[in-house]
Design brief:
4% strand; mainly alpha; 121 residues; two-stranded antiparallel ribbon; rod-shaped; 79% helix
Length: 121
Protein backbone atom coordinates (compact mmCIF):
# COMPACT_ATOMS: atom_id res chain seq x y z
CA UNK A 1 0.00 0.00 0.00
CA UNK A 2 2.88 2.40 0.42
CA UNK A 3 6.14 3.10 -1.32
CA UNK A 4 9.46 2.48 0.47
CA UNK A 5 9.74 6.20 1.26
CA UNK A 6 6.51 6.03 3.25
CA UNK A 7 4.29 7.82 0.73
CA UNK A 8 0.87 6.22 0.52
CA UNK A 9 0.03 5.56 -3.13
CA UNK A 10 -3.10 3.40 -2.99
CA UNK A 11 -6.43 4.72 -4.19
CA UNK A 12 -8.09 1.70 -2.59
CA UNK A 13 -7.88 3.26 0.87
CA UNK A 14 -11.29 4.42 2.18
CA UNK A 15 -10.05 7.98 2.78
CA UNK A 16 -9.42 8.38 -0.94
CA UNK A 17 -13.07 7.63 -1.79
CA UNK A 18 -14.26 9.74 1.14
CA UNK A 19 -12.29 12.77 -0.01
CA UNK A 20 -13.23 12.22 -3.64
CA UNK A 21 -16.93 12.34 -2.72
CA UNK A 22 -16.57 15.34 -0.40
CA UNK A 23 -17.96 18.79 -1.13
CA UNK A 24 -14.46 20.24 -0.70
CA UNK A 25 -13.10 18.08 -3.52
CA UNK A 26 -15.98 19.10 -5.78
CA UNK A 27 -15.26 22.73 -4.92
CA UNK A 28 -11.58 22.19 -5.73
CA UNK A 29 -12.48 20.81 -9.15
CA UNK A 30 -14.98 23.63 -9.75
CA UNK A 31 -12.37 26.28 -8.94
CA UNK A 32 -9.80 24.62 -11.19
CA UNK A 33 -12.18 24.22 -14.12
CA UNK A 34 -13.55 27.73 -13.56
CA UNK A 35 -10.21 29.13 -14.67
CA UNK A 36 -8.74 26.51 -16.97
CA UNK A 37 -11.67 25.97 -19.33
CA UNK A 38 -12.40 29.66 -20.10
CA UNK A 39 -8.69 30.52 -20.32
CA UNK A 40 -8.06 27.64 -22.71
CA UNK A 41 -11.05 28.57 -24.87
CA UNK A 42 -10.01 32.23 -24.98
CA UNK A 43 -6.42 31.40 -25.87
CA UNK A 44 -7.42 28.94 -28.59
CA UNK A 45 -9.86 31.47 -30.06
CA UNK A 46 -7.15 34.13 -30.02
CA UNK A 47 -4.64 31.77 -31.64
CA UNK A 48 -7.11 30.65 -34.31
CA UNK A 49 -7.93 34.29 -35.06
CA UNK A 50 -4.23 34.86 -35.67
CA UNK A 51 -4.00 31.84 -37.99
CA UNK A 52 -7.16 32.77 -39.88
CA UNK A 53 -6.10 36.38 -40.26
CA UNK A 54 -2.64 35.31 -41.42
CA UNK A 55 -4.10 33.02 -44.08
CA UNK A 56 -7.08 34.99 -45.36
CA UNK A 57 -6.61 38.66 -44.41
CA UNK A 58 -3.29 39.41 -46.09
CA UNK A 59 -4.14 43.05 -46.71
CA UNK A 60 -4.98 43.70 -43.07
CA UNK A 61 -2.03 41.74 -41.69
CA UNK A 62 0.41 43.55 -43.97
CA UNK A 63 -0.58 47.03 -42.75
CA UNK A 64 2.53 48.82 -41.48
CA UNK A 65 2.25 49.95 -37.87
CA UNK A 66 5.67 51.53 -37.36
CA UNK A 67 8.47 51.33 -39.91
CA UNK A 68 8.69 47.73 -41.14
CA UNK A 69 6.61 46.39 -38.26
CA UNK A 70 3.25 45.23 -39.55
CA UNK A 71 0.05 43.97 -37.91
CA UNK A 72 1.07 40.33 -38.42
CA UNK A 73 4.26 40.81 -36.42
CA UNK A 74 2.37 42.59 -33.65
CA UNK A 75 -0.20 39.76 -33.53
CA UNK A 76 2.59 37.18 -33.42
CA UNK A 77 4.38 38.93 -30.57
CA UNK A 78 1.09 39.28 -28.69
CA UNK A 79 0.78 35.49 -28.82
CA UNK A 80 3.86 35.30 -26.60
CA UNK A 81 2.57 38.05 -24.33
CA UNK A 82 -0.80 36.35 -23.93
CA UNK A 83 0.87 33.00 -23.16
CA UNK A 84 2.91 34.52 -20.34
CA UNK A 85 -0.09 36.49 -19.09
CA UNK A 86 -2.24 33.35 -18.91
CA UNK A 87 0.55 31.47 -17.11
CA UNK A 88 0.88 34.29 -14.56
CA UNK A 89 -2.91 34.49 -14.07
CA UNK A 90 -3.06 30.70 -13.69
CA UNK A 91 -0.38 30.73 -10.99
CA UNK A 92 -2.10 33.57 -9.16
CA UNK A 93 -5.50 31.87 -9.38
CA UNK A 94 -4.13 28.55 -8.14
CA UNK A 95 -2.23 30.16 -5.26
CA UNK A 96 -5.25 32.14 -4.10
CA UNK A 97 -8.20 29.87 -4.83
CA UNK A 98 -7.12 26.26 -5.31
CA UNK A 99 -3.92 25.56 -3.39
CA UNK A 100 -5.30 26.38 0.09
CA UNK A 101 -8.17 23.93 -0.39
CA UNK A 102 -5.86 21.32 -1.95
CA UNK A 103 -3.50 21.60 1.04
CA UNK A 104 -6.45 21.14 3.40
CA UNK A 105 -7.56 18.00 1.56
CA UNK A 106 -3.99 16.69 1.49
CA UNK A 107 -3.70 17.26 5.24
CA UNK A 108 -6.94 15.34 5.84
CA UNK A 109 -5.64 12.52 3.65
CA UNK A 110 -2.27 12.43 5.42
CA UNK A 111 -3.92 12.48 8.85
CA UNK A 112 -6.20 9.57 7.95
CA UNK A 113 -3.26 7.55 6.60
CA UNK A 114 -1.17 8.36 9.68
CA UNK A 115 -4.02 7.34 11.99
CA UNK A 116 -4.51 4.13 10.01
CA UNK A 117 -0.81 3.26 10.22
CA UNK A 118 -0.69 3.94 13.94
CA UNK A 119 -3.69 1.62 14.37
CA UNK A 120 -1.84 -1.16 12.55
CA UNK A 121 1.05 -1.11 15.02
Amino acid sequence: MSEPNGVHQSSAHPIYAELHESDDFEELRRRYRGFVLPATAAFLAWYLLYVIMSNWAHDFMSIKVVGNINVALVFGLLQFVSTFLIAWLYGRHMNRNVDPLARELAARYDEAIRTDREGER
